[in-house]
Amino acid sequence: MEALLSLMIGTLTAGGVYLLLRARSFAVVLGLALLSYAVNLFLFASGRLILGAPPIIDPRAGQYTDPLPQALVLTAIVIGFAMTAFVIVLALKAYVELNSDHVDGRTDQEL
């Protein structure tokens, strides 16, 4: 399970970095989203993956899972959604102003 999760985190990170290095603004937005998913999975996995264990410290329960990474992931999802919406609006404004979706503002004829 951990190997599969590590593989998924690595794949999402590699895809996110690849898309961040593209010259188009929407590819950059997708790259940021993929990187945020990778970080969320990493935070979630840092709380130990225990199936069926309650997230409450109870001496009667034999095992428990740490609720802090789950709370951090929920917070990161909300912040990531807000940042993605802001970057999309910023990219749309730049596209309308510059008539190009290149991150440096150049048009296709200038390249």
TrEMBL record:
Pfam families: Oxidored_q2. The chain crosses the membrane at residues 6-21, 28-51, 71-92. It is a multi-pass membrane protein. The keyword NAD does not apply. The keyword Kinase does not apply. Keywords: Cell membrane, Membrane, Transmembrane, Transmembrane helix. This is Na+/H+ antiporter subunit C. Belongs to the CPA3 antiporters (TC 2.A.63) subunit C family. It is found in: Cell membrane.
